[in-house]
Amino acid sequence: MKSIRTRLIRLVVLAILIPTALATSISYLYVRHQNIEQAERSSLNVLTRGNTQVTHYIEDIRRLSTSLYANRSLMNIMRVGADQELDESDGVVSRAMLGLFLSRQDIEQLHFVILNGYSEYSVYNMKTTSRGKFDWMQETDYFRLMKQKSGWLIDEAHTIEPYNVHTMILDEKQVVSFRYRIDRVETDEPLGFLSVDIPVRVFEQQLKLFENDPEESLWLMTEQRVLAQTGAEMELPVDRFTGQSGSLRVGKSFIVYSKTMTNGVPLILVKRIPYASVIQGANETALILVLIGLVSLFVMIIAASLVAMQITKPIKQLTANVWRVEQGDLSAPFVATTNDEIGLLNRQFQRMIQRIDRLIKREYRLALENRTNELRALQSQLNPHFLFNALQSIGTTTLQGDRKIAYRSITGLSQMMRYSMNNEQTIVTLKQEVDHLQAYIRLQQQRFPERFRYIVDVPWHLNDIEVPKMILQPFAENYFKHGFRQQLAATENYLAYKVRTDGGRLIIQIENSGAVLETGRLEEIDRKMRMHRSPEDLETSGIGLHNIYERLLIFYGEQANMTLSSSAVEGGFKIVIRIPYEKGDLA
């Protein structure tokens, strides 16, 4: 049994937990969504500024190649080839490349190729190498530049390498190479190539300007080539960068990207933010709500416990007093300690117990005693009829000289008398009652052999049903007293018992043969059966049916029903009894 205190505390816990859980979940989802949107907006703003800055820088690098078109001498050498005037050509190219190298401090290495004659020059560490022979175009990005419309491209980050045998690299650095195709202005005919190597650290320094947290990382990419990056390595899902800008979640990271196009070359700026930092605000909000809910829950549990104690204490006292009354102690004090509903209940209980005590002392005990005496008187009225008829049957058998039958009859009679005279047992099983009935009928068979036939139809599964004692045999006794005719054959004298159930009721049906009743006789028998009689009443007419009817009313009250009917042509009685049949109810 769950106490009121337990149920009240549980109710309070549910009343706090459910709203808190819902509020926390909804707030968490809402704040997380807002945090993600805010992180995406702020990151996209940063990436937009970063794209603008990186694009301007790359545009400055790209303009390096345009300065070569202003050098007419260099353009003439590229048209005719460097082999025409070696000394003059090498000097013009060397000065032009060295000037280009010195024009910016962030250039690590230059490489210049003249297609006419396949001459090449490189500048590294402020030194221009002598002219070399360029014969490896098929293995470089220059081959792609020959067919590319934009005329320039950006190579991914790589370790710096010498372009020819005349260059000695002093230290290994990561660089990004910008490749340019130099065309004839009039015909767009390719004349040569220019490569500019820019250290990766230059782009990394620019990317770091857009980091808001040390745990963030940025990538500068062109198509699927990484030009520069900061922070930890991560495989980027480039194929999912479908829009111009957007965001996506990859593992424990939140990725924001922004695309731009500079002179036909696509650039992608990517920012990785730890997902935990993005939803940090949502987590903090959820934690605050959980703490508030826990504190509220703790306070409410204490308050509910105090309230429950104030409620359950008088209830426990009331329960203890009711238990004392249940044990028969009607002197239990019902003291109202409060002026609420429980106090009113205590006072009502006290008045009820006092009234019950008076009723028990003045009315119930007297009525119970009268009812007991009445039941015993009804049972005792059955015994003389049965004993007289049984002794008469045994006497007849004895006069006939059959001692064995007489012995069995006396033995059966003694068992029947023991059964019928045991007034302490008022409730028996249906099997005991049927056995008593059949023992009586066997005595009558010995008295009137082959003079009647009988049927007792009781399903075996009904044997354990409890019924009042002596409700079957008196009908058989009445039949042999009033309806049995000795002069008739067994086919015309019959007695039938049939027992069935219908829902929660036990139906006992008794039929017998007999004389045709006069008009109004059945109504008179029925009236006398239902008429109340005192135990001192000396009238014996209809005493058997009346006794059984009275005993059924004593045990079952209005739930018992007994009806009589007869045949106007064939004669005889039909009696139907309906009583509850649930086990244990009458014990």
Structural class: alpha+beta
| Spans where pLDDT lies below 50 across 5 or more residues | none
Q: Roughly what is the average pLDDT, rounded to an integer?
A: 81
SS field, number of helical segments: 13
Number of strands: 20
Task: Give a quick account of the main beta sheet: strands, pairing sense, barrel closure.
Answer: 8 strands, antiparallel
N→C terminal distance: 28 Å
Strand fraction equals 15-25%
Query: Helix fraction?
Result: 40-55%
- Rg over C-alpha atoms, rounded to the nearest angstrom: 59 Å
The 3D shape can be described as rod-shaped
Characterise this structure.
It is built from 13 helices and 20 strands. By secondary structure, the protein is an alpha+beta fold. The strands form four sheets. Strands 1, 2, 3, 4, 5, 6, 7 and 8 form an eight-stranded antiparallel β-sheet that branches. Strands 10-9-13-12-11 form a five-stranded antiparallel β-sheet. It has a five-stranded mixed β-sheet with strand order 15-17-18-20-19, covered by helices on one side. Helix 10 (about 430-445) runs parallel beside helix 11 (about 475-485). The chain starts with a helix and ends in a 7-residue tail after the last strand. It is a multi-pass membrane protein.
